[in-house]
């Protein structure tokens, strides 16, 4: 079984230090040279391992940053209020249902901290995005990790059983679509369970990749938060909005839960650059469409190659794809790294499969060529 190496743990490892030294910055979208900030192009490894949006900073965000940075000697209160107002209007909710996070990771932390109680446990799928586990352990909660089904689906029935078996409070972390599989949760079953929230059962629903979902059956749980005080939905600007380095996330919940989470937040957790860039990206009507299109083009290229090679892949509802590599995943990842491409990382219960972040179509062509060479060598 592989260790479930979270990004945080990966970044602390010596392998990561070597990889980051080589990686440098991502190249930017075409036309970026006319914009205030052009990403440094790099001859280093192609980073297809952290589910970032390789199109680079949205042009509207670049313009907003250039305009706002001279005022960065001021505290960010106004920029933060403007972002939150824009988000409230975007989701058609009240401002008191929203909370800002230094990335959605901070939303997960605030939620765990606000929901924790003596004798509480955290129940989560395995594998999934791992940081709620870290926060729960730091808080002294017991953590129960429920393996995905053999079809890599989140096993809601088994998670419910883990909740029922516990005498104290349960905090449930769910990720929809799940990372690393990209699979959506069963919509009806999910909504039914979320409705069962109580003082003894709270839910953290992570929708980091919601904007990438293609399946029309997907319904965000944001609409449930107004009437359900035991549910928070976490969202981020790190994925489709391409602002991972600026650390902007937000939570949507009932005002009573928002208040409890706010008590756990670091004071002034927002920064001016993140706020103005996020507001501009949110209000850019083309960005999401353009990013989804690029992601679909990238996906089509990779799917064609995987099909040609007879390697299976799960349905993709995100900017990453979970696919078969046949051999040992760690060895495959190392060979890709040796070929200058960083892919996936270790996830429990999934040897022989790998998570591939979808970069730009030109980047994915390079990946596909390398994968075909691996087949010629008998490696996949
Ligand atoms: C499912 C999921 N949630 C949250 C995050 C953290 O995102 P942020 O950059 O907003 O902290 C990630 C990052 O990869 C993720 O995959």
Fold and architecture overview:
This protein is α/β, with parallel strands linked by helices and 380 residues long. The chain folds into 2 domains: 7-58 and 286-376, Alpha-Beta Complex (Aspartate Aminotransferase, domain 1); 62-283, Type I PLP-dependent aspartate aminotransferase-like (Major domain) (Aspartate Aminotransferase, domain 2). 39% of the residues lie in helices and 14% in strands. It contains 13 helices and 11 strands. The chain has helices at 7-12, 14-23, 59-68, 77-91, 104-115, 131-138, 156-164, 187-194, 255-262, 272-283, 287-309, 329-338, 361-376, and strands spanning 46-48, 98-101, 121-126, 142-147, 170-175, 201-206, 231-236, 249-253, 320-324, 341-343, 353-357. The strands form 3 sheets. Strands 2-8-7-6-5-3-4 form a 7-stranded mixed β-sheet, with helices on both faces. It has a two-stranded parallel ribbon with strand order 1-10. Strand 5 (170-175), helix 8 and strand 6 form a beta-alpha-beta unit. Helix 5 packs across helix 9 (255-262). The longest helix has 23 residues, at 287-309. Residues 1-5 and 10-33 have low confidence and may be disordered. Residues 51, 103-105, 129, 175, 179, 206, 208, 236, 238, 244, 249 line the site of pyridoxal-5'-phosphate.
């Amino acid at each position: 079984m592989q260790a479930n190496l979270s990004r945080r743990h990966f970044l602390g490892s010596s392998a990561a230090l070597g990889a980051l030294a080589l990686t440098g910055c991502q190249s930017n979208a075409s036309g970026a040279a006319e914009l205030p900030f052009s990403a440094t192009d790099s001859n280093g490894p192609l980073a297809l391992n952290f589910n970032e949006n390789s199109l680079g900073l949205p042009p509207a965000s670049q313009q907003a940053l250039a305009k706002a940075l001279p005022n960065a000697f001021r505290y960010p209160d106004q920029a933060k209020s403007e972002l939150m107002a824009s988000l409230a209007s975007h989701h058609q909710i009240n401002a008191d249902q929203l909370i800002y996070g230094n990335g959605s990771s901070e939303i997960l932390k605030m939620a765990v901290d606000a929901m924790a109680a003596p004798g509480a446990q955290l129940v989560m799928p395995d594998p999934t995005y791992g940081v709620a586990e870290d926060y729960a352990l730091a808080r002294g909660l017991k953590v129960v990790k429920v393996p995905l089904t053999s079809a890599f689906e989140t096993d809601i029935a088994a998670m419910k059983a883990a909740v029922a078996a516990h005498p104290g409070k349960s905090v449930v972390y769910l990720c929809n679509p799940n990372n690393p599989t990209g699979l959506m949760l069963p919509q009806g079953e999910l909504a039914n369970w979320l409705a069962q929230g109580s003082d003894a059962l709270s839910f953290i629903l992570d929708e980091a990749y919601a904007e990438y979902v293609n399946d029309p059956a997907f319904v965000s749980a944001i609409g449930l938060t107004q009437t359900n005080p035991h549910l928070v939905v976490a969202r981020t600007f790190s994925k489709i909005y391409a602002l991972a380095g600026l650390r902007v996330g937000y939570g949507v919940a009932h005002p009573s839960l928002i208040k409890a989470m706010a008590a756990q937040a670091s004071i002034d957790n927002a920064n001016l650059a993140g706020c103005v860039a996020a507001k501009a990206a949110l209000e850019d009507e083309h960005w999401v469409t353009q990013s989804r299109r690029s992601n679909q083009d990238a996906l089509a290229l990779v799917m064609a190659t995987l099909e040609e090679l007879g390697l299976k892949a799960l349905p993709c509802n995100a900017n990453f794809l979970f696919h078969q590599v046949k051999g040992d995943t760690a060895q495959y990842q190392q060979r890709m790294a040796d070929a200058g491409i960083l892919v996936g990382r270790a996830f429990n219960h999934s040897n022989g499969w790998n998570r591939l972040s979808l970069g730009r179509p030109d980047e994915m062509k390079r990946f596909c060529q390398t994968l075909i060479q691996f087949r010629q060598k008998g490696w996949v």
